[in-house]
């Protein structure tokens, strides 16, 4: 050991024993040099790995929130609306039956809004698949009535269904119950999968912290021995390692968060500009509660990384010393 190291060791020993070690604020502790030297400049490899983990964790949490919001919008629409399909042998019969069905709906308690789609409009909806004018020319396209109803009416639609069939024979009332159940099940499955990915990513962060903490102790075995000789406790060493891992985790988490927010912002702009507007894709905006929830992910990642490193160091020191 060199004379400079001996002088530094003596100073540390005196400060530990007589309690005159200077108290450091949180800012000075975060900016201070690490107690145990690191492999690589400033822990760059570990910071990069944590950045990737934070990026994936933010995306997984965003998927959970977006699926939840989209499913709530879709299912609320299905719960508040029903559809009445009017069939007939010709256009005149369909028109008369639709008028009779609308009269029944408008006089029914619990019906909030009625809007109709006649044969011509329904035929236009089929033109992308059947070609221009083919649906109206060759098919007897049914008319559609969209109805918004109160929750009390949805609980018992049999009376309304019977009244519609009496006023407009062959009228079909569809309450979208099967669609609602299937969509809710799919949404729950998607949320569970996204949250499982989030937990797996956090598990990977714990595994990396364990490996890095053990590798750091093994690489700096002599320094740890010197610290024990001058009176440093396992708690003191573990706290220093925890502080360093928290700093590295904070750096990497911020980088991962910024990258994830950029990716989500580009996705939101793509959906808003028209990509995927004709498909069954959820729309979302990057703001409000979504950003607040996503900001919590780097904080969780930092604390998980630092706490795992602390516990690993404590256990390793107890086994070795």
Written account of the structure:
The structure is a single chain. The chain has helices at 3-18, 26-31, 44-80, 91-106, 119-130, 134-138, 151-154, 158-167, 177-219, 221-229, 234-272, 289-320, and strands spanning 81-86, 111-117, 143-149, 172-174. It has 321 residues and is an alpha+beta fold. It has 2 domains: 33-74 and 181-320, no CATH class; 88-170, 2-Layer Sandwich (Alpha-Beta Plaits). α3 packs antiparallel against α9, α9 runs parallel beside α12 and α11 (234-272) packs antiparallel against α12 (289-320). The longest helix has 43 residues, at 177-219. The chain is elongated, with a radius of gyration of 33 Å. It starts with a helix and ends with a helix. Mean pLDDT is 77; it is low at 1-22.
DSSP helical segment count: 12
- State Rg: 33 Å
Number of domain modules: 2
Low-confidence stretches: 1-22
Features:
single chain; 321 residues; alpha+beta; Alpha-Beta Plaits; 2 domains; 4-stranded antiparallel sheet; 12 helices; 4 strands; elongated
